[in-house]
Amino acid sequence: MSLLDVDNLSVKHGVLIALDGVRLRVDEGQIVGLIGPNGAGKTTFIDTVTGFTRATNGQITFDGRDITRAPGHQRSLAGLVRTFQSLELFDDMTVLDNLAVSTQSPSLWATITDALWPKSHDLSHAHRVLDLLDLWPVADRLPTELSNGQRHVVALGRALASSPRLVLLDEPAAGLDPTETAELAATLRKLPAIGTSVLVVDHDMSLIMNVCDTVHVLDFGKVVASGAPDQVRHNPKVIAAYLGRPPAPGEHADER
Ligand SMILES: Nc1ncnc2c1ncn2[C@@H]1O[C@H](COP(=O)(O)OP(=O)(O)O)[C@@H](O)[C@H]1O
Ligand SMILES: [Mg+2]
C-alpha cells in the first residue's frame, strides 16, 4: 500500500482545467519528483493534496484513509505537510520560534499550558530540526536577517518540525545557488531515514535528477511521463513539454 495514492485527480479553476486525471503515488521512504513547465498544475497538485483547493474529481488516499474531502488541518495532523513557493515565514519571530510554533501539539492540555506558561512547550522537536538542518548559528535571528538560501532552509524546517510522514515541497531550490542546492539535496536524502517521505516540485533538474527515486512530468494538468530520472529525462514528450517543440537529435530536457 502506498503512503499517498492519488487517483484520477481533476481540478477546475472556473473553466480552466488545472489538473486532468492525475495518478501519482508516493511509497513510504520514497522521494518523488513532480516537474513541468510554469502553469502545468504543480502547485495546484500540492494545494489539492493538502486541502487548500478542492478536488473536482478523483480520490486522494493517505496512509490508507480517503482524505479527498478532509479539511486541511486534519491532513496535517495525519502527517501530510507542505511548504509554499512564497515561504510564508513569520518575519517577526526568531528562527527557533518559527520552528517551535510549527511543532506544537494540538492537544487540549498543550493549549492550556501554552496559554498559562507561553514558553513552557517542549522545544525538543525544534532543536532536532536545528540539528538536522544546521540552523543553530541562526537560531536567534529573524528570517529577514537571513540569506535567501537560509530562508528556504527555515521554510523546510517549519514543515519538518512536526515530524511529518510526507512533506510536499513547492520549489525549495528557487533562487538557491549551486552550493546551496547541493546542500538541500543532501538534506532531502536524509529524510526517508527519519520517517519522512518526500514529494518535491522544482525546476532545478540537478536537484530532481539527483534526489528522486521516481519523477512525474506534468504538462497542461496531465501526467505526460513517469519513471526513473534517467528514463524521464530522455523522454521526447518531456523535452517537448519543456521546449514547446520536438527535440533536436541528442537534445535533453535539462538543456533548456
Ligand atoms: N486560484 C486560482 N484561480 C484560477 N486559476 C488558477 C488558480 N491557481 C492556479 N490557477 C491556474 O491553474 C494553472 C496551474 O497553475 P499552478 O498549479 O500554479 O501551476 P505551476 O505550479 O505548475 O506553475 C495555471 O493556468 C494557473 O494560472
Ligand atoms: Mg507553482
TrEMBL record:
Annotated keywords: ATP-binding, Nucleotide-binding, Transport
Is the Translocase keyword given for this protein?
A: no
What Pfam families does the database record attribute to this sequence?
Answer: ABC_tran (PF00005), BCA_ABC_TP_C (PF12399)
Which SUPFAM superfamilies is this protein grouped with? P-loop containing nucleoside triphosphate hydrolases
**CDD domains, sorted:** ABC_Mj1267_LivG_branched (cd03219)
* GO cellular component term of the entry, any: plasma membrane
A Gene Ontology molecular function term for this protein is: ATP binding
What is the name of this protein? Unannotated protein
Q: Which residues form the ABC transporter domain?
A: 4-245
